[in-house]
Amino acid sequence: MTSVVVCGDRPRISTGEADVVAVNGLCRDPRQLAALGIDATRIVLVLHPHSYNLQEVQTALRGIDIDPLGAQILDAVEGADDTTLAAALRGLVARSSAFAGSAPEHAKPVLAREVTRRGFLRPPAPVYIGAPRVDHSRCAAGNGCRACVGVCPRDAYQWQSGRVIYDKDACAPCGRCITACPTAAIENPTATPAMIEAQVQALLAAVKQPIGLRFVCSRGSIESKSGWFDVAVSCSSMVPGSWLLACLLLGAGAATVVPCTESGCPLQLDDRAVEANEFATSTLAAFGLDWLMVIGEEIPEPIASGSIEDPFGLHTAPDVMVALSAVAGQKIDLVHLAADMGVVEIDSSVCTLCGQCAATCPTHALTEIYDGDTVSISFDPSACVNCVQCVPACPELQRGAISVSGRVDVGLLMEGRVTLNQGAVVTCEVCGKAIAPAPMMERIGDILGDEFEGTTTMLASRCLDCRGAR
Amino acid sequence: MGPLEVEYVRLFGVGMGGTPATPTESYYRVPARDGGIAHFISSLQREYRSMGLVSVGIAESPDHISTEMEVMSYLCGLEVEAWESDQGTLALDTLSLEVRFIKTHLAMWVPEFCASARAASASGFYGRLVDFAHAYVVHEADYVVGIVNEAAPQ
User: Fold this and answer.
1) Which long-range contacts (CB under 8 A, 24 or more apart) does A76-81 make?
2) Which pTM does this prediction carry?
3) Which residue among B88, B134, B147 sits closest to A111, beta carbon to beta carbon?
4) Pairwise CB contact (< 8 Å): B149 & A169
5) Model confidence over A275-322: pLDDT tens digits?
6) Which domains does chain A have, with CATH numbers?
């Protein structure tokens, strides 16, 4: 259950399920929460910006057994109309209700800056912010995946012997690792896909006229805009363009991600937010839909009011594209750097079918299958998240055997899994077991040259067991 | 034996069905083969000696959770004394020792140990106690690192 507590003497506002309680001077003294007899485990607070101390609010929440990381705080904006406030509150109540709780690993302490040495006699209580945690049981680092290592702007991840090591102290946290992780093994409980979906759906249900949705950095503060509602994320750089398109399909009239710099974020990670907006705009334009829906001031009628399963989760981009294709009545083939889905291409004249790409692929978009005396590598475009982990895994990378592009090819998506390369398998002349793909043996022969022809012949004629090699 | 003692032995003792939650660091961090555990414990004892600590009487193993928690408590006590006697440099040095000890030992294995204990005693006394121990170790590790970082360049 979620409670809503407003600082001030505002009259009761209906938020649907949750009661709204007004407390005068709550910003100044959050300890008043203890006297309210709240038995909810989730809370939404409406507080005046710059008038409260977040550390005191978090301490007061812990005192009434509410996890501060799940608390939602809405800025009390002077002059905001009750309808807008009620809708925003409904969104946050839904978001708060979808909070699944946090573990100690999720809490990152942030200490007040410039503490003097004498000040350490009484160290300041920290403010806690949500930090990501790696679920090693889902992490694909064991197969060589380093997607989080590659995107982290603070070098908070290191790959060591098939395991990623996370340094919470170095982490911003910006959340780029969360949307970059191909197996959804990293989560931050303060902005989970389920919480974002709950908030978006509640906002869309609360307002009858078309609304715009803005993904904003939870650390920043930007001016409110009539008709637009904010959805907070760890950092706007974590938002993929497909999330904006998913909002439109769910019934929003417009959706955008506000670049970090605009909201005053010191991380300066605005490039990704700009790219996400561009990707969404380009995709809509390619579909022949009104591109102003992403960046326009006026909020147009929604293009759809459908539903998508897990709209802000992993592997949603292909579903979004297929749904948009149905709305637009056409297919597109768009290449874009910021696409959170990709297409793998293999040059079969160079590929040796060694299968390293498939062994590394964290989402199993690439698979290698041995079937009798043939071997094939196939690709499922609906499973590819454009993480590009297959490229450095390829031993023939220098010769251009594999490439991945951020690409939305709806025709290919609808086609399903396709074979990218296939060839014969060399079998053991003694036991008949598969030794290796024929192109791989040929490549080994080419590398060893005529001088080692005998070795090549031996390798291609007997398996490891029949050679007594193991 | 009282019910808590029975539960203690069931969770942390060596029983017929194995130990649900082994309370020693080496179990989680060192492969049992090739004398790895002996080397690990010797190295830990060297670390204790460098802090001026020796075990007296009958004590738990140096890598037992109670021993490591006691070492952490000792370091915290030294730090408090240093602050109270206005020896800022000594206090920060001790704090750095705490950071090193908690990051290289307790934080490396206590969460896993607690998860095992919780799985075997979700609603029991020790299940709740390991929740507390888990939260303490993780929060303390984060907090001391933060304090040392704040102090570093001044």
Assistant:
1) A76/A6, A76/A7, A76/A8, A76/A46, A76/A47, A76/A48, A76/A49, A77/A224, A80/A224
2) 0.89
3) B147
4) yes
5) 999 999 999 999 998 766 666 567 888 888 888 899 998 889 999 999
6) 1-102 (3.40.50), 134-188 (3.30.70.20), 209-331 (no CATH), 342-423 (3.30.70.3270), 424-461 (no CATH)
